Amino acid sequence: MGNDVTDPQSLPVMLNIRAAAAMLNVSPRYLTSLLESGQLPFERAGRRRRMARADVLALKRTRDAHRRRVLDELARADGELL
Fold first, then answer.
1. In sequence order, which residues have a C-beta less than 8 Å from that of residue 21 and are 6 or more positions away?
2. What is the pLDDT at residue 78?
3. What is the pLDDT of residue 77?
4. By C-alpha distance, which of 24, 16, 11, 10 is closest to 67?
5. Structural domains of the chain, with CATH
6. For the chain, what is the radius of gyration of the CA atoms?
7. Tens digit of pLDDT per residue, the chain (82 long)?
8. Per the confidence metrics, is the pTM higher than 0.90?
């Protein structure tokens, strides 16, 4: 069993830190910082944190869109320099 998250719908509705971090392609430690800063809502299950799969996917879409915009801007700026 690996970190294959090619089909997010096959994941549980509530994700643990490891699964959510794999989906976002970040470290569990960085994901924890996102949780603590309020960028991703979570629920506590005892001492453990659980995130809704829908919230993790929404954050992933937001982060991916931001990356695309930045890359497009860099490509335009590079084209202007040539």
1. 27, 28, 30, 31
2. 81
3. 87
4. 24
5. 8-81 (1.10.1660)
6. 16
7. 444 555 666 677 999 999 999 999 999 999 999 999 999 999 998 999 999 999 999 999 999 999 999 999 998 888 876 6
8. no
Both tokens of 34, joined, read: 């996102």
Q: Is 14 helix (H, G, I), strand (E, B) or coil?
A: strand
Can you read off the two tokens belonging to residue 24? 């976002």
Report residue 15 as tokens: 């994700």
For residue 63 the two structure tokens come to 């982060």
CA 50 – CA 74 distance, rounded (Å): 36
Tokens of 51: 């995130």
